[in-house]
Amino acid sequence: MRLKTAISNELDANAAIEHIKLSISIEGIKAIVCYYTEAYCNQNLSNVLSRHFPNIPLIGCSSCKGLMTESGCHCGPVIGVMAIYDNSPYSAYGTANVSLTDCNDFKQAVNSAINKALSKANRVGEVPDFIILHATPGNEERIIEAIDAQFGTQVPIIGGSAADNNIAGNWSVFNEDNESSEALTLLVGFPSIPIATGLSVGYSPTEYYGLVTKAHGRYIYSINKKPAKQIYQEWLRVHSGLTILDEYLFDYVSEFPIGNVVGYIGSQPYFKLSHPIRITEDDALEMFSESKVGETITLMTGSKKHLVERASRVVKDANTKNYNESEMVGGILIFCAGSMLHLGEQMTEVYKKISAQMNKQPFICPFTFGEQGKLVGGENAHGNLMISSAIFYDSEHYL
Question: Where is the FIST C-domain domain (predicted)?
Fold first, then answer.
């Protein structure tokens, strides 16, 4: 198995894919993973790719302002693809895209998508080695719950929520059959080599924590029976000395997100992160992920230096699993758009550290509005300001 990436900044989608085809041979491709900025969302990219790469499973997701590959940080407009070459007769890949417009039964929608993808892979009734999941923002928790229920076990997920440049809904996801601004798309993978996946927090808990006492969906109304706005701003003020007006909250949340305690390793808690969007008129916090009544939440903190280092640590941590010191073939990383925007020009440092840790092997990395993957305790979860990773390893040394 091998991986190959290519990018294009051509504004016309057809010209961009023609440019990409110059770098990628179609022979032997088992699947294509594609990330792109919002300039291409209305250019029927699914159809364009399918014409140029017929009868190949495709999965695509829009990215905020750019993406990364082993060749650098690429600002939009840009399209990037990763071709998966896997000539083993035992490998298989299949995709599906299901609309979520007016969806009120996510279990049925997810089951339909999984069954379609397994059927295309000719692996009906089997459990895949991993799933690449991309959905438009809003219902990621329901989707993950349905995936776990479908298989009765937690299949490793590598995922990210579709993004645009300004949180204006100019996002989309696609497979070879369809493209939509309100849908989920997934790829089931049965690769010929092992894969290590993970979902990394990379922030540290502060001493400030509380109990969610009123919440609904992605709104936290009260913490410790007090207005959520009051508690969050009090935590910020006492911890950092910051007194933040409501309208400037978004400028600081990438440094001070909320951590939801998911479980414990020994006596140490581990977290998923939740990104506040705004303070509502009734002093609630609107979030990019869900919190439930009775959950313990903590003010988290992460300096820019810490954020620069953590992406390469994700790859390093995957390597500690080492698979008998197998060599990396390449990987897919999902990096939060909020962290990317917070770091700005320092993303060049992030790229250099990831590239060095990947030993110059191919990788592709979009910037998403939510990240999905398997936490250290084994749970699949959706969070914010996180890094999801899937690293492929050479099977010749795998015993």
Answer: 228-375
